[in-house]
Design brief:
147 residues, alpha+beta, eight-stranded mixed beta sheet, globular
Length: 147
């Protein structure tokens, strides 16, 4: 586990900038696309200081979550991915609520959107509990916006 500078904290999660130490986690979460995803996140962080954080819980890297600049859309894209071992523990909801508050107070952003697949019921519910609603359902993903 890389112990880079902590940038984000909730009751049970800490977040740090994406870095090479997260390659194993990205591989677990995204399979063969993990290395390219980590490279993208590190480049975004280097350019804009906005990219998904590597999330740690109880001393272990358990997820990736944060924001991307929505160049083709209005606001910041919010995203979160957790390893299956921590599903059902409320970490996604804890993360999303704290991340939105962080972005509103620190980044001064008020517009957020995210994507989920129609069959990812748990992710959709986490987003709905945080105030997101389905904006578009064309294509393979649902576009959700913070209401």
């Amino acid at each position: 586990m890389d112990t880079g500078k902590l940038l984000f904290r909730t009751m049970r999660l800490t977040g740090r900038a994406p870095g090479p130490g997260a390659l194993s986690l990205y591989g677990r979460l995204f399979g063969s696309l993990g290395e390219a995803g980590l490279d993208r996140d590190m480049q975004d962080w280097s350019r804009h200081a906005i990219a998904p954080w590597t999330l740690t819980h109880a001393g272990h890297d358990v997820g990736v979550g944060g924001f991307r600049i929505g160049f083709a859309d209005d606001g910041l894209e919010v995203l979160f991915h957790f390893v299956p071992e921590v599903w059902g523990q409320g970490l996604a909801s804890e993360f999303l609520n704290a991340a939105l508050e962080h972005a509103q107070t620190t980044l001064r952003e008020t517009r957020f959107f995210g994507f989920t697949q129609p069959d990812e019921i748990a992710s959709r519910r986490v987003m709905e509990k945080a105030g997101f609603v389905v904006a578009e359902s064309d294509g393979p993903d649902l576009l959700m916006r913070l209401n």
